[in-house]
Amino acid sequence: MNVSHTIKAVFFDIDGTLVSFKTNAVAESTKLAIQNLRNKGIKVIISTGRSINSLDHVKEIEFDGYICFNGGYCATREGTVLHRQAIDSADIKRLLDYSLSDPISFALMYEDSVKVNDTTAEVAGMYAHLNLPVPPMLDRSTAKINNVLQANIFLRPDDEPQFMREVMPNSVATRWTPLFADVNANGLSKAIGIETFCNFFGIAITETMAFGDGGNDIEMLKRTGIGVAMGNANQNVKEVADYITDDTDNDGIWKALLHYQII
């Protein structure tokens, strides 16, 4: 199965895909795989729910572009912003009002900063899991409701549908953990980022490949020519993938690229 001549861009999720939750590092085989892709002229692009300012874990790797905030922000390696889409300000206003009477933890993610409304053990644990410092506290008196590119809402999956209908009806929620939901502008997903970069580089969707492990990767894996789920991926991610590779910690990216004879 030689599809190497048809693949011109590969998109990578970070947490649980490029970066191991066990080691908080990128496997040496993955670094080599990405270098081999770039040596062949294949574009390599980050596709993450992280902020553009929270990519230190992969800074030693050279990428051709960045999809951040689950498609809410797309920028080239040189820093040219190709796409930016914020959450409806009315939804952020309702979230702030809701949290005054109903205890709920959340983070608001802007292009240049992230703020949290509290620092519970749950919130601190999530940022520790991502090997990131807990962001500064949100000052309600000066909180900006415009230009929020993503919100992380700490609520149980069972409570999510009603919350989204009543509090953030103009937004969409995706998950890679039961602890919280990534919330973005309605209609937004990593697939928007895929399309943005395909248009920018002049690449057909059929000439793309993507790797992911969480619920926020589903639309990306469905949209690209070849969608690869990591062995450690959630079951709903594996169900939409074209191929299931090994775990992140067991050279999963390298093995999948070998399987498709791309490296």
TrEMBL record:
Gene3D superfamilies, per database record: 3.30.1240.10, HAD superfamily/HAD-like
Native source species: Mucilaginibacter agri
UniProt keyword list: Hydrolase
Higher taxonomy: Bacteria, Pseudomonadati, Bacteroidota, Sphingobacteriia, Sphingobacteriales
Signal peptide: none
A GO CC annotation given for this chain: cytosol
Pfam family, one: Hydrolase_3
Top-level taxon in the UniProt lineage: Bacteria
Transmembrane segments: none
Protein name (database record): Cof-type HAD-IIB family hydrolase
PROSITE patterns for this protein: COF_1 (PS01228)
GO molecular function term, any single one: magnesium ion binding
